[in-house]
Write a structure and sequence with these properties.
With 261 residues, the protein is an alpha/beta fold. A 7-stranded parallel beta sheet has the order 1-4-5-6-7-8-10. A 3-stranded mixed beta sheet has the order 9-11-12. Strands 2-3 form a two-stranded antiparallel sheet. The longest helix has 14 residues. The relative contact order is 0.13.
Length: 261
């Protein structure tokens, strides 16, 4: 496996978010802000110094984010957050100026998508992938029917943090390029059961949709036994399970490991 740092870049144009569902209860953004003793509340959304990063250049004139990168976008907030409405037009403009990079964002606010797209969106930008996040059956049944109807060229479903067994089989179709799942991290994390992961994988196999098990989470139940998995092993243990289901060419390179916490 090649170095994952060679294929992705981070772009957090704004920071901070408001909690809207159960998956937000132990939000890693809040936890990290507390860990680093941020002077600003995590619920306060503010534009970052990196706002213009996609179009910034080095002294020799090349882009600071080189061509070909998968750009994890707005991972310390939500790209469709209401508080960022004033800045999003400029963010879309930068994404449009960089067709040589792939911009990937997750959202728990897929119901706002049509309010937040640029005028030239049409059926989607070729270089944008949108991940709809679901954590339980309630949010899956609310968000995924909306998601399936939206004009987006590249779609993924992010079942994370997975806090209960879910059935998304009714929402899996050829427009979904990948389902990725993982448990919750942090000392207060809710347990993730391996049976839920395997069940979700089988749903994907049955519908011929690619599947990725990203991380175990901090508390992982397997064969009826609860395991405490240290943060540094949560991704590697998921990879060791060897249950990813890959089909054909992936929009997101196989060497990329998602950077949610």
């Amino acid at each position: 496996m090649s170095d994952i740092y060679s294929v992705y870049a981070d772009w957090n144009p704004w920071h901070g978010c408001t909690k809207i569902s159960e998956g937000c209860r132990h939000c890693y953004v809040y936890r990290q802000d507390e860990q680093y003793k941020s002077s600003v509340e995590s619920s306060v959304v503010r534009k970052t110094a990196a706002f213009g990063l996609p179009i910034k250049r080095t002294r020799n004139g090349s882009y600071k984010i080189p061509p070909g990168k998968v750009v994890f976008t707005c991972f310390t907030s939500d790209f469709l957050l209401e508080d960022a409405d004033a800045w999003r037009t400029d963010a879309w403009s930068m994404i449009r100026q960089r067709p040589d990079c792939y911009f990937y964002f997750f959202t728990k606010r897929i119901h706002r998508f049509l309010e937040c797209i640029p005028a030239d969106w049409d059926d989607g930008y070729d270089n944008v992938m949108v991940g709809c996040t679901v954590e339980n059956q309630d949010r899956a049944d609310f968000r995924l029917p909306i998601f399936n109807q939206l004009p987006i060229k590249h779609k993924s479903i992010i079942a994370s943090p997975l806090i209960e067994q879910i059935d998304i089989s009714a929402y899996l179709n050829e427009s979904i390029e990948e389902v990725a799942t993982g448990g919750e991290s942090g000392v207060d994390a809710r347990p993730c059961n391996y049976d839920w992961i395997l069940n979700l994988r089988q749903q994907c196999v049955d519908k011929n949709v690619p599947f990725r098990f990203h991380q175990t989470g901090a508390f992982f139940v397997k064969d009826g036994k609860m395991y405490r998995v240290l943060r540094r092993f949560q991704i590697s243990q998921a990879i060791k399970a060897g249950i990813d289901f890959r089909i054909g060419k992936y929009y997101v390179p196989e060497t990329v490991n998602y950077k949610w916490e």
